[in-house]
């Protein structure tokens, strides 16, 4: 016995030397999220009706808020995600994307929320004229669309700050904001970080209409594309009035004093603490100034519609040039030169950031080609080729992180435009010709790996360390050491205890005050295997806190047997008393008890059911025999109590478990009077 215990201790210390703890804001410490959808964060004027011959009209501005489920924190930072879509609605923009419900937007919000952030998917106002033959019209309406989008982003920031001050902080946030954008949203996130001075940053020659003689002197005049008296200020906190509108297209103003901007939440700050872009560009490099917030950037280096360096911003559906812009490379060069991104340099060493080598050229950074700029990740996608896709040759990729159901979308797009089958649906594939959910989710993970440490550093976060249930149970000094060793040597069978598996777990862990050797004696000399005992201490149906326990409650544990809760002077689990409650883990909760739990099968009449399982262990194919000629319910469960197969049987039955992989399984047979469970091992 002593030798066995020493051997177990050796194994335990060898394996327990590895830490599985997780850090809030860096790792996915929450398994599930809660979403509040279509929250109205403001109201402002949309120009979309103009495209259909109507007049500008008020529009509710909406956001979806993603929060970690089961989190009681009230000081969580906010990450706002801005969707793509070329400032036009989905389908009408020739794309399958274009609002806060885009797949890539949703998954980024989910990933941030599971790390403990409050993530916000924001809809902003759309509308411009990309098909005008007049270059000034194309350029002016796009710049005006971006201006309205910027106002909405800042309105969203002010709205959230207002909920803290006036509404009792319903979303549990603090005054730290990061804004990130995908594709078109990347333009807006860069604007939110850098566009603050109207006179110096918008009164540039490239932002002037010089096509008309306004004063009649025979010379064309320079008229700004953005006039604050018409469009409101940069923050959207005052009114904008258009003096006249030609609604019938006869060249004469027939409507005067048209509202073009409505103030939303004045008196609150629009400031943010960090921005990041995944795609997109900035209209002019002069916008990036010393002392502004850190910016992190990811972009396809060979994208043609938004320049990676200096180049023309183009309309994907028409190929028309809008304005010269500067992409992620230029933004990062300037942000690094000004010292705005110094925090990323410092972070890289502290957090052991694998995507920046601090000049050391580690494998990731060397492959990505961004070792010189800690805030830059150029995405290297395949060069265009003659390889055929359903929509023609393999195109240059600009947004490989987007995906959608193209079979459905293509049909909708074609019907909308009345074009030949596949025409409009294929336009959406210009930026991601081989798009798929698997590929999109791979990019979601890549974006998270690169961006999350930079958000963490820029927002100056201090994330608490949160253990998984496995880590907590094997390291907590209040948990019995023999039980901890048992978990360690059974780790392959109980691997989910170290994972974020829905809906989470509740463990009743025997106390360290119990005698280790005595427990070992009971287990090793008894008829019940250690794994069965361990699984009888874990509930796989979610986190059950002390406040959730009720007198007489029965909880079915992972081994298929139940424990009973009795509440009097103390909380009892069968005959064991809860001594410490609510030790919270990333994937569950632990309660310390003063005894070991054993399954009590006295209520089960095993004599009424008798069956043989063979071979056991097996290579996958299992036969159940010796059944009486009557109806039984068959459940096959994983080692964690998850039912993976249910059948009704009344005679010998053969089935194959190979599809579920190697491991320990439980076969449960029951009729109206009886239940019996047997363990089977698949090798």
Note the main attributes of this structure:
single chain; 683 residues; alpha+beta; FAS1 domain; Rossmann fold; 16 helices; disordered N terminus
Explain briefly what this protein structure is.
The chain has 3 domains: 2-20 and 467-593, FAS1 domain (Roll), CATH 2.30.180.10; 32-210 and 268-384 and 434-458, Alpha/Beta hydrolase fold, catalytic domain (Rossmann fold, 3-Layer(aba) Sandwich); 606-682, Immunoglobulin-like (Sandwich). It is built from 16 helices and 32 strands. Helices cover 25% and strands 27% of the residues.
Q: Which stretches are low in confidence, meaning pLDDT under 50 for 5 or more residues running?
A: 1-19, 601-607
- What's the shape? elongated
Count of DSSP H/I helices: 16
Instruction: Order the strands across the largest sheet as they lie in space.
Output: 2-3-5-4-6-11-12-15
Radius of gyration: 31 Å
Structural class: alpha+beta
Helix share of residues? 25-40%
The second-level CATH architecture of the largest domain is 3-Layer(aba) Sandwich
Mean pLDDT: 84
CATH topology of the largest domain: Rossmann fold
CATH class of the largest domain: Alpha Beta
Count of extended strands: 32
> Strand content of the residues, in percent?
25-35%
State the fourth-level CATH superfamily of the largest domain. Answer: Alpha/Beta hydrolase fold, catalytic domain
Terminal residue distance: 28 Å
The largest β sheet comes out as: 8 strands, mixed
How many domains make up the 3D coordinates?
3
